[in-house]
Structures are given as C-alpha cells and as structure tokens.
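Dataset card, provenance and construction

Sequences and ligand SMILES were collected as paired inputs. For each pair, a complete structure of the chain with the small molecule in place was predicted and serialized as structure tokens. The example below shows a pair involving fe (ii) ion. Curators did not alter the output after generation; any descriptive sentences attached to a record were derived from the structure itself.
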Amino acid sequence: MRRVALELLTSDMVLARPVYHLNSILLKVGTSHLERFISSLSKLGITHLYVTDRLSEDIILEDTINQETRLHCKQVLFSTINALSSQGVLKTDLLSESTDEILDEILKNTSVLASMNEIGTSDDSTFNHSINVAIYSLLVAKQLNYPRVRAKKLAMGLLLHDIGKTMVNQKILYKPSRLTKAEYEHVKTHTVLGYEVLKKNDSLTELSRIVALSHHERLDGSGYPNQIKGKEIHEFVRIASIVDIYDALTSERCYHKKRTIYEAVASLKDEAVGKLDSGLVSTFIKCIAIYPNGTMVRLSDGSTGIVKSQNPDLPYRPVVRIISDPLDRPIVAQDIDLAVVREIKIQEAKYMEE
Ligand SMILES: [Fe+2]
C-alpha cells in the first residue's frame, strides 16, 4: 500500500483505504479505475489516496486505531454535536464509551507509531481534528504512564476541546483569507463558550473542561483567553496545545496547505521555545512516525522510493523501497534499510510536490 497524489493515479492501482465523507464511505476498498474520480475527489478537497499496486502490495500501513473504531467515534461526535445544536443539551455518555474503545486499542497496541491514515473530505476536518488530537493525547498519556482514568479525562477534553467553535459565526471561522482583528477576537471566544457548555455537563470533570478553556494558552503568557503562564497551565492543557498545533499543521485547512510530518515536527520544535513545554514536545515526537509507511520520499542520492517499514528507534531512517533512479527512470524495485546504509538519508517527503 502507498499514498499517491490524485494526479499520479494509474489504471493498475486499487484503492487500499476507504475515502470517507462525513458519516459514510464515499469509495470502498478495492475500487479500481480510480482515475475516473480525480475531478470529483479534488472538488471535495482530497489530494491523495492510499492505493495498492505492484510496487507496494507487500507494504503494510498500520493504523494507530482501527478504521471502524475511528469511524464509530466520528459518528458519535457528529450526533453529539448535532444534538447540542438542535436541543441545546450536551450528552457525553456515548462519547465516553467510544473513548473507552479507543483507549483499549491504544493500551493493547504496543508498537505502532501514530500515523493518521484516514482520507476524509474537507467537510470532515473538524471531526477528524478532534479525533486525531484525542488519539495523540492518549499516546502521550501512555508514554507518561497515566492511569487509565486520567488518560480518559485527557482524551475527553481533547475530543470536546473545540466544541465552542459550533457557537461562533461559521462564515468567519471558515473564512479562507486573513481575519480582521475583530473577527479573530470573535473566533477566540470559542474557548470560553466551549468551557461554559462543558460546565453544564455533570459527567465531565473539570480537568476535561479546562482543556477546552485553555488549549490556546502559551507558557510565556502570550495565549488566550486568560493569558495564564508557566505553572498556571495544567499538564493536560500543555499536551493539548502541542497536539492541537501539530494536527493543524499536518491537516489541510482553508487558510493553509498541509505540511509534511517532518516539517510539522520542525516547526513544533521552533514553536516550543518559550511557548510550549519542550519536554512534552519531545515525548510527543517519540509517538509519531516521521515518515509513515507508504510515504513517497526523495533520498539524498537523488533516487525516489516508498517507505516500506519503520525502525522505531531511528524514526528518521526507515526501510525504503527504491522505485526510480536519480534521473527519475523507473528501476527494478529494491529495498534499502537506512539504519544500515548510513551514507544515504531522506531528503524530503514528497507529499506536496508530487
Ligand atoms: Fe481551539
């Protein structure tokens, strides 16, 4: 399996991961002649698909959590938010069950580094973001040996951290150009609005609620809404800001292009100076695959390949299947282990320019 840009789809490729749109599956695994769908997928904001072809049939993409668990959580989140909008009441019992399912899988699964393989349309982005950050937070919680109950409180906070966004003006929220000062101030209110909604729900704990209130606060006091700083910022909130920034960087948003994981990790480290908890940033980086299996990469010798498998202790040096030489001529595929061949390194992940 590998990840391929829409414009590079060829007739020998078969869909290896479903394409989701809101609550349903748009294209099933096994769909062939994918080039038929290029223009409609691209209108929905999709840029890549996971496919299997001759070159990648033995490359396995491991999910951090399985696709059904993830889809179920998304459906629950969708109905929870719909019920809040229509009836004004937030019920979190189903969300709590769904969080338990995710938690079970993460605790059971010992080796998988996080790589979010779901292909969703841009309409799904709010839900995908909430689920991604909840999963990332649980991986950090696992590294920090949080007891289960504490990890769950953190994840519930992350699933609901942006719930206040359903209460701000959607035209401003999704405005593709730069916000005016007044518009930005309006969007910032999602933190307090979210906290107030969560406060009305007795089954949530205050620790989950403060994630919604404070996830935009920064250690140097430059955040919002209360400009709290340093020790005033709870560890849950510190984790939330890291995973929130990271997922925003690696997702397509209306106001910016998606970055590669490598670039996102680099800017997270930059941002960490003074603003984020650098110890927690390092803990988080240990949980993610810098070059997930199936990623196209350009190596320092000019050749191109597909990441085949991971060396967990050397996340920057996976095993790569070389498919074309430095002059971009196809070659008989051969695998090289960058943990062994130290003179070659990955120059870039080819997400954007493919
Ligand atoms: Fe937010």
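Derived descriptions for this record:
The first strand starts at residue 2 and ends at 5.
The two ends are 17 Å apart (CA to CA).
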